[in-house]
Write a structure and sequence with these properties.
Helix content: over 70%
Shape: rod-shaped
Oligomer: single chain
Distance between the termini: 26 Å
Largest sheet: none
Strand content: under 5%
């Protein structure tokens, strides 16, 4: 005799595999650590590029103020703050990316 619960679960699993086939195939090609490392590297470059673009926009927006005080301004604290914000943001962003892609390979429970 066929168990209706098992048939229902198997049908749901087959539908899930069809729907998520591309994502599942991508995760099966790598070891989990390689998969996570690849996405961490991609997100590192993405975050760095985004940070530099935002920094450029801030500098261009404030260029008149910067040029007015360039003679008396000490740039060491400014560079220190820019680098501090970059590294703190990078650590937070990479932690989030690692968490997301660590969870990708785990089975879902209902």
């Amino acid at each position: 005799m066929l168990n209706e619960d098992k048939i229902k679960l198997m049908t749901e699993l087959a539908l899930y595999e069809q729907k998520e086939k591309k994502a599942l195939d991508e995760t099966r090609r790598y070891f989990k650590s390689d998969y996570v490392a690849r996405h961490l590297l991609q997100s590192f470059f993405g975050f760095t590029l985004s940070y530099l673009l935002v920094l450029l926009l801030v500098v261009l927006y404030n260029i008149q103020k910067i040029l007015e005080i360039i003679v008396i301004f000490d740039f060491v604290p400014l560079f220190r703050n820019v680098l501090l914000f970059y590294f703190v943001g990078l650590i937070i962003f990479e932690s989030g990316v690692q968490g997301v892609f660590q969870m990708r390979g785990k089975p879902h429970r209902q």
